[in-house]
Design a protein that fits this description.
By secondary structure, the protein is mainly alpha-helical. It has helices spanning 6-46, 65-103, 110-120, 127-142, 146-150, 178-181, 186-199; strands at residues 53-55, 62-64. The protein contains seven helices and two strands, in the order αββαααααα.
Amino acid sequence: MADLSFIYLEMSLTPIRLAYGAGHAALVKQLADAEAEEIAHGEAVAAGEVEDYNYDPDTGDHYYTSEHRHYAIEAAHDALNQHCKAFATMIHHAWERHVCERNGWAEYKCNLAYEILSRQKGWTIDKPRLERLRMTANCVKHDANELYGKHPEMFDVHEVPSGRLFRKDSWKTVRNGWSEALRVTDDDITDFLDAVRRSASIPQKLVLPPRKAQF
């Protein structure tokens, strides 16, 4: 009899996928609006229609509107990144919970899970992609640096913590700030969702079509 337990994972992932898609679309619009406002302000300043410099004689406050526009764009970029990082942890948690519930395990241990599920139960485990997801979630939750050692391309080189990288013979970090330097993208979320779905047990001859996180 075919193992149809992957259906339960799909039921867990669907609301996550829908919530991610809705939030991502809103944040993309927020970024586009901020960028459009910056362009419009620059054009207005160039045409002499408005002043970029502002001064309030009552309070003594002074600022450049262009700087505020720039900060709004940076905030929108950061919001998108934080959104992706949060959903990466949710996707991994859904995978852990599914594996433990389907197998009656009290605790999830990745290497043991990969071995047992692939060799003994025939699950189509995609270890490299699941490991990238696991390390991403650990970086977000625990500021772990293991992901940087395997996938440095996922980090902003300008924000990677300085100093010695690892303790000798250990993945334990000697510096903090890995989570802040991490950049998780929409493509990463799509890959994480697909990796988890395809790693669950799939009945023979049943083809699971790829699915994008966005609609």
